[in-house]
Structure formats: structure tokens, C-alpha cells
């Protein structure tokens, strides 16, 4: 039984005495005593009725107040100011630094490889010196992965932190997470034009599959 049904039954109960009294008279001619008795029963029923309404309204208002207090606490736990001014900007800076470090390392490795290829026509001593020097440059450039790994870990931590807070807030407001979200025209076009890359290892199409497309 729903809360609304229970409230309706509670509001109807005070008038059952009036209904029972009228029904007991069987439709006969009413006397002055019947009128007085009915008036007394009606007055008592009205008092009970309004008392029931007061209790019902109080319970509903109390539930609303509890819900508002709970929402206030959950909004406070979101700490949106911290996310906006600290965590998200730092995550953006880390992502920018990752892109820059990757680009610099790639350029260094390509320049070293080009230098070794250009020294292929030199004498053996010169070639050995160039190769040794550029190989060390490549090793140094590859060290970028340590710093980028740390930055990526911080970004992942921030995303998990945001996910936890939003999930807790969504649970508190009892949102229907299974309800489908209507896709906008822009989102649909972006999805249809997406090239789906780069793909994860084991999911991407193999070279043999690509070769099979060109008989």
C-alpha cells in the first residue's frame, strides 16, 4: 500500500461514525434527538479529521525538510569549488604536460635516427661516435614515460574522485541512471563520423585483415 493510500484512509476514518449513524436509521423520519446526535458525531469527526490532516501535513513537511537537509549535505560533499579551482585545472595542466613531453621525446628520437642515417656514409670511427651519441640521446628521450606515467596516474585519480562524488550525489537524489539520454544531432553526427581509433590491443583489425581487403 502506498503512502498516498494510507493518508486517504486515515482522512476517511473520522467520517465513518457519521456514515454508520446515518445508515443505522434506515432512512426513517429523523427526530430532534437524531439531529442533535448527528451534530455531535459530526463535530467530533471534524475535530479528528483536522487533527489527522495536521499530522499528515507535519509528516510530509518533515520528510521534505529531511530531504532538503540531506541534499545540502550531499552538495557540500561535492566540494565543487575545490574541483573547479584545484583538481580539474591541475588535471588539465598534467594532460598538457603529457602532450608536450611526448612531442618533445618523439622529435628527439626522430632527430637522433635521422642523424644516424645521415652518418651512414662516414668512416667507421665517425659512424660509431655518432651512433653512440644518438643512442644515448634516444635513451634520455625515452625517460619521459616515467614522468608522463606519474601525471597520467594523477589525472586518473582526479577522474575517479569526480566519479565517486557524482555517483554519491546521484544516489542521494535518486536519479534514474537507466533512463536513456536523448542524443543531440551534433552528438549523433560526431558518433557516425568517428573513425574509432586508436583501438586497444586485441581489438584492432590485424594487418592480415587489411591485406585481405586488397586482392
From TrEMBL:
Signal peptide: none annotated. GO terms for molecular function: catalytic activity. It holds the Pfam family CheZ. One of its GO terms (cellular component) is bacterial-type flagellum. GO terms for biological process: regulation of chemotaxis. SUPFAM superfamilies: Chemotaxis phosphatase CheZ. This is Chemotaxis protein. It comes from Ancylobacter novellus (Thiobacillus novellus). The lineage of its organism: Bacteria, Pseudomonadati, Pseudomonadota, Alphaproteobacteria, Hyphomicrobiales.
